[in-house]
Specification:
CATH architecture of the largest domain: 3-Layer(aba) Sandwich
Order of helices and strands: EHEEEHEHHHEHEHEHEHEHEHEHEHEEHE
Radius of gyration: 26 Å
Distance between the termini: 13 Å
EC number: 1.1.1.399, 1.1.1.95
Bound molecules: 1,4-dihydronicotinamide adenine dinucleotide, 2-oxo-3-(phosphonooxy)propanoic acid
Catalytic activity: (2R)-3-phosphoglycerate + NAD(+) = 3-phosphooxypyruvate + NADH + H(+); (R)-2-hydroxyglutarate + NAD(+) = 2-oxoglutarate + NADH + H(+)
Largest sheet: 7 strands, parallel
Keywords: NAD, Oxidoreductase
Family: Belongs to the D-isomer specific 2-hydroxyacid dehydrogenase family.
Oligomer: single chain
Organism: Desulfotalea psychrophila
Length: about 400
């Protein structure tokens, strides 16, 4: 029997979707789903009246109306780290392609297709000097954003015999502990920018970071440095970057977010948002997104939400009803919920609460059924955003 309808948007790897059992329907055409799994397409949660949760199979959630989702009690997940390796695995080769003139070298070889066979090797040896490059080893890498990707990139730089500096204004201890000791973490961004031959961006786009890489940012970089953007296009002020390429202050701009002006500039290399596009990463993201979504739909448990607090509770076998109360994070809500339930003689087996400063989330286990009238009474409180009754069998 179908309990939950899931809509997929974009190509979601089957490895994850296959984990969903018979209680789920999965349909890209579903227009009224309980859950959505999406990659980079835009999603406005207003379009889905019964939506309970959405899982972004990936890192960035700038394509989702997260604030509206919070107001409506819709939980938004992402999959931290699941595609981080894929990004790092592309950024280093792209730097190498620029530094070693590989793109031009490959084009040159292609141009030899019609040269008589006995002349090819002579052409190669006489003209290869034009493609001489420089090495990654010994260069200084500056990583802006030491999250899942930034930490792996910084460590990868050390493994490639680079000097590595990194900056993050809100570093998570988990990530910082994974950094190799050789990486220098600077307290100010300018101290990373001023040291680096190559600056790589690995931070989310949001109202604070949109346009962050402007003329001032670039002026703090070393003359002749290379800028790499595998984070998001709008973090970079394109006009400022193009001007710096023209003046020579930047040697090159390598980006996953092509625009006509960037593609047209001779000092750029672009890829079509390919950072996470590997078989491994797509499988990881799909499995993780589906796991998060199904734990939420079935039990109301939360891991890796970007707008709700993390919370997990395993129900006792005697529990019949799990009541979820999502409320604004204001004082007195636990007392309110327990009072309403107590007034109706409802015996609570377990009450778990977590909050994140915006949303309070309560998992209340009950050994009986729960009348709709009691739920209605809870919902009448203007600080209650949403409730769910999950029937456990
Ligand atoms: N090109 C692609 O296909 C992909 C792009 N991305 C992009 O990369 C971003 C980072 O991904 P993850 O490392 O997985 O995320 P993450 O959340 O683990 O790390 C992001 C880090 O950026 C830091 N940060 C926030 N504001 C900052 C600022 N103003 N300056 C410096 N650091 C700042 C945060 O404190 C955090 O440590 C994503 O938000 C997404 O936009 C992620 C995956 C694939
Ligand atoms: O995870 C991210 O933030 C990405 O940018 C990856 O996007 P994608 O899932 O490849 O469309």
């Amino acid at each position: 029997m179908t309990l939950f309808r899931i809509k997929t948007i974009n190509a979601i790897a089957p490895e994850g979707l296959e984990l969903l059992g018979d209680e789920y329907s999965v349909d890209p055409e579903d227009n009224n789903p309980h859950g959505i799994v999406v990659r980079s397409s835009q999603v406005d949660v207003d379009d889905y009246p019964e939506l309970l949760a959405l899982a972004r199979a990936g890192a960035g959630v700038n394509n989702i109306t997260v604030d509206k989702a919070t107001e409506k009690g819709i939980c938004i997940f992402n999959t931290p780290g699941a595609n981080a390796n894929a990004v790092v695995d592309l950024v280093f080769p792209m730097i190498g392609i620029w530094l070693r003139n590989i793109y031009q070298g490959i084009s040159f070889c292609k141009s030899l297709a019609d040269v008589p066979p006995d002349e090819v090797s002579g052409e190669v040896e006489s003209r290869k000097a034009a493609f001489r490059g420089v090495e990654i080893a010994g260069k200084t890498l500056g990583v802006v954003g030491l999250g899942q990707i930034g930490v792996r990139l910084a460590n990868g730089g050390i493994q490639r015999f680079m000097k590595v500096y990194g900056f993050d204004p809100f570093p998570s201890l988990d990530n910082i502990h994974k950094l190799f000791s050789e990486v220098t973490v600077t307290r100010a961004m300018r101290d990373t920018l001023s040291q680096a031959d190559i600056v790589s961006l690995h931070l989310p786009v949001n109202e604070k970071t949109r346009g962050m890489v402007d003329a001032d940012f670039i002026a703090k970089m070393k003359p002749g440095a290379i800028l790499v953007n595998y984070a998001r296009g709008p973090i970079v002020n394109e006009e400022a970057v193009l001007a710096a390429l023209d003046s020579g202050h930047l040697e090159a701009f390598i980006s996953d977010f092509p625009t006509p002006a960037v593609i047209a500039h001779p000092k750029t290399l672009t890829t079509p948002h390919l950072g996470a596009s590997t078989t491994e990463s797509e499988g990881n993201c799909s499995r993780m997104a589906v796991g998060e979504l199904s734990a939420y739909l079935h039990y109301g448990n939360i891991t890796h939400s970007v707008n709700f607090p993390n919370i997990e509770s395993i129900p006792e076998s005697t529990v019949q009803t799990r009541l979820i109360v999502i409320n604004k994070d204001v004082p007195g809500m636990i007392a309110f919920v327990t009072k309403v339930l107590g007034n109706h003689g409802v015996n609570i087996v377990s009450f778990k609460n977590e909050s994140n400063g915006t949303v309070g989330y309560n998992i209340i286990d009950i050994e009986s059924t729960l009348d709709q009238s009691i739920v209605t009474e809870l919902e009448a409180n203007e600080d209650v955003i949403r409730t769910r009754r999950i029937i456990l069998t």
